Amino acid sequence: MINAEGLRKVYRLKNREVVALDAVDLNVRQGEVYGVVGQSGAGKSTLLRCVNLLERPDAGRVVVDGADLTALSRPRLRAARHGIGMVHQHFALLSSRTVAANIAFPLEIAGVGAAQRRRRVAELLELVGLTDKAKAYPAQLSGGQKQRVGIARALAPNPKVLLSDEATSALDPQTTASILGLLRDLNRELGLTVLLITHEMDVIKQICDSAAIMENGSFTESGQVLELLETPGSLLARSLFPLPASSPPDTVTLTYTRQSDEPLMSQITREFDVDVNIIGGAVEEVAGHSVGRLNVRVTGPRRQAALDHLAGHGLIVEEVR
Amino acid sequence: MIEWIAELGQRWPDMWPVLWLGTLDTLYMVLWSTLFTILFGLPLGVLLVATDRGGLTPAPAVKAVLGTVVNIGRSLPFIVLMVAVLSLTRLITGTTLGPTAAIVPLSIGAIPFFARLVETSLREVDRGVVEASLAMGARRLTIVGKVLLPEALPGLIAGLVMTIVALISYSAMAGAIGGGGLGDIAIRYGYQRFDDYYLWATVVFLVLVVQAAQSVGDFLVRRVSHR
Ligand SMILES: Nc1ncnc2c1ncn2[C@@H]1O[C@H](COP(=O)(O)OP(=O)(O)OP(=O)(O)O)[C@@H](O)[C@H]1O
Ligand SMILES: [Mg+2]
C-alpha cells in the first residue's frame, strides 16, 4: 500500500548538513498497522512527512496506493492527499471552528456538497463517540477528545491510508490505550492501512503487525513483528521484553511466539540431564499472539544437546553474551 | 467652577453643531481610510507572511521589496507623509483641503501600519494547522481564506482597532493642515482663538470616539475568540 524506495533527505543548515533520511525502504502492506520506533531525531517524522510529500525527498520514490506521488503534478498530488489521512501529535485542529466544522474541513477542501458533508460528519462523530460535542470548540475538549476529533477529521474523506505521528504521546496512559484501541478497530473494520510513528515500544506491542526500528536516518530492523521476535539478536525483541541486565554464566534467552503443548523444560531435564533455573521473563500479547521470552540458566555436560532440542521445537535460543 | 459650567451651558447651543459636524467629518475620514486600509493592508500583510522563507509561497525577493516599502511607510512621521503625498492627493481627489482629501494620506499612512499588525497576527497561527491543511490537499488560497485569516481573526480585529485609533489621531493631525474634523476645530477655535471651551470639548469628543472604537473592538474580539 505504501512503498518507498531509497528515500534520502538532507537538511542544509548554515554550517552543516543533517542527513535525516538515508536510503530508507519502506513497505507497508494493505490493511496492516505498521509502526516506526526510534530515538528522538532518528528521522521518524521526516519519513512520515515524506510519505505524503509534505517534505519532498532529495532522492527516492514514494508510491501510495499505486500512485507515484513523487511524479505527480501539484493538482494531482492534492487529489492524492485526499486519500491519505494524517493524525498529528498536537492535534492541529482549527481553534476557530467547532468540532463538527473541523471534521467537515477536509470535505470542504475535497469539494463535497453541504448536505453530504453534514451526513458524513454525523457518521464520524458517532464513530469516535463525540456526537454530544459537535458544537463545542477544540479549546473546550480534553486531549483525548481532541485526538478523536483529529482522527475523525483524518477519516472524513474515506482515506485508504492513515498516517499518525506520535498521536498518543501528548496523552495519559489510559487515554493512549483508548486511542490505540480506536485505531486498531478502524484498521480491522475499515481495512484501513495505518503507518504510525511512536517512541513507545508498548504501542508496537499493542497494535502493530509490522514494525521498523529507526536510527540515524535509516532502518536497523524492519518486518513483521512476530518474525522480528524470532530473529536472533533482534533489538525489537530485546526492547519489547527487557530482561535482567546481568545474568549468571550459561544463561540463554528463550523466545517462543506460539504456545507449545509439549512440556519442553521437563523433557530436557529428564533426557539431557541438565539443570534448569529460570532467571526472569515475561509472556505478553504481541500482534495478537501470546509471546514469551525467558532468561534461563541451563547447566550440565549435555547442555548444547538440550539447547538444540529446544531450538528443534521452534524456540529461539540465544546465548546471553 | 460653577461659573464655568454656567457659561458652558450658555454657549453649548452654539458649540454643539460645530462639534457634531466635526465629529461627523472625523468619522467620515476615519471610516473611509479604514476601508482602504483593510483593502490594501490585509493582502499586503498576507503577502508578507506567504512570501517568507517557509511560507506558503516562499519568494525572498518579493518579501524584501514589500518589507522595505512597508518600513519606509512606517518610518515617516504622519505629518511629513501628509505633505509628501500632497501632489498624489491632488491627483486622486482634485484638492488638498477637506476631509475627502485627507483620506489619501490617512490611508497611505495606515496601510503599512496595519499590514505589519496583520503579519504579526498571521505568524501566530499554529504552523501545525497550516501543515495539516496542506496534508489534506488544500490549495494555498484556501489555506489563506479558511485557515490563516479565520484562525488569526481575534488578532486581526485587535490590530484593526489599533489602526482605527491611530487613524483617529492622524485625522486630528490632518485637521491641522485643513483636513477638517475635530482636529481642525481644536486648532481653529482652541489654538488660534484661545477658546478653551472648544479645546476641551474636542478633547472629550475625541476620547469618546476612541473609547467607542476600542469597546466595540474588544467586544468583537471576545466574540470571535475560541481559544
Ligand atoms: N525542517 C528542518 N530543518 C532542519 N533540520 C531538520 C528539520 N526537520 C528535521 N530536521 C532534523 O532532521 C533530523 C530528524 O528529525 P525528525 O523530526 O524526523 O526526528 P524524529 O525521529 O521525528 O524525532 P522526534 O522523536 O524527536 O520527533 C533531526 O536531526 C532534526 O534536527
Ligand atoms: Mg518527530
TrEMBL record, chain A:
Short name of one Pfam family: ABC_tran
SUBUNIT field: Homodimer. Forms a membrane-associated complex with FtsX.
Protein task: Part of the ABC transporter FtsEX involved in cellular division. Has ATPase activity.
Protein name per its UniProtKB record: Methionine import ATP-binding protein MetN
GO CC field: plasma membrane
Alphabetized PANTHER family for the sequence: AMINO ACID IMPORT ATP-BINDING PROTEIN, METHIONINE IMPORT ATP-BINDING PROTEIN METN
UniProt GO BP: amino acid transport
Family statement drawn from the similarity comment of this UniProt entry: Belongs to the ABC transporter superfamily.
From TrEMBL, chain B:
Keyword Aminoacyl-tRNA synthetase among UniProt keywords: no
Residues annotated as transmembrane: 27-50, 62-88, 100-118, 156-177, 197-221
InterPro entries referenced in this protein's UniProt entry, alphabetically: AA_ABC_Transporter_Permease, MetI-like, MetI-like_sf
GO cellular component: plasma membrane
Signal peptide start-end: none
Claim: Transmembrane helix is one of the keywords in the record: yes
Domain of life where this protein originates: Bacteria
Keywords for the protein's UniProt record, in alphabetical order: Cell membrane, Membrane, Transmembrane, Transmembrane helix, Transport
Topology relative to the membrane: Multi-pass membrane protein
GO BP annotations listed: D-methionine transmembrane transport
CDD domains, alphabetized: TM_PBP2
Cited Pfam families: BPD_transp_1 (PF00528)
Places the protein is found: Cell membrane
Domain (ABC transmembrane type-1) ranges: 23-217
Similarity remark: Belongs to the binding-protein-dependent transport system permease family. CysTW subfamily.
Protein known as: Metal ABC transporter permease
Organism listed in the record: Nocardiopsis ansamitocini
